[in-house]
Structure formats: C-alpha cells, structure tokens
C-alpha cells in the first residue's frame, strides 16, 4: 500500500440547490493510475476542481496529500 494522495469521503456538491455530486467516496494512492470517464454534465470537472480548492464540497471531507479539506478546513 502506497502513500495516500487523494481521499474523498462522503463528498456532496450542490449548485443552486441541484445535486452535482452525491456521496462520493474515492481513494487514490501513490503509484496508482486512474481514468475519470463519464457523460457530459456527470460531474467530472467538479470532482477534479475540488483538489486545488476551486470548488468546496457542500458536505463531506477531502484529503489531499494528507491535509483535510472540509466545510471549515481549507488551506
């Protein structure tokens, strides 16, 4: 098992009251390779835009390189 790079835990995101992401759980470790696939409007860009904190999850937590992001904890 490698070092944890990215960890989404029960992440939800709503825009104008409409759910974009609902209860996402995703874990990526060092050395893993992923492809993110989905239809237009499925939330791929929203999911990835949370990594540099361009979008903030409505609920849930996100850890990037071991630092926890959440509603009240942003770098």
UniProtKB/TrEMBL annotation:
Keywords from the UniProt entry: ATP-binding, Nucleotide-binding
CDD domains hit by this protein: ABC_ATPase
InterPro entries reported in the protein's UniProt record: ABC_transporter-like_ATP-bd, P-loop_NTPase
Pfam families assigned to the protein according to its UniProt record, in alphabetical order: ABC_tran (PF00005)
SUPFAM superfamilies, sorted: P-loop containing nucleoside triphosphate hydrolases
Membrane-traversing stretches: none
Record's protein name: ABC transporter, ATP-binding protein
Species assigned in the record: human gut metagenome
Lineage per the UniProt record: unclassified sequences, metagenomes, organismal metagenomes
């Amino acid at each position: 098992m490698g070092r944890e790079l990215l960890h989404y835990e029960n992440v939800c995101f709503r825009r104008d009251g409409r759910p974009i992401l609902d209860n996402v759980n995703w874990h990526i470790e060092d050395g893993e390779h992923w492809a993110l696939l989905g239809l237009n409007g499925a939330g791929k860009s929203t999911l990835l835009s949370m990594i540099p904190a361009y979008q903030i999850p409505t609920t849930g937590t996100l850890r990037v390189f071991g630092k926890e992001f959440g509603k009240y904890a942003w770098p």
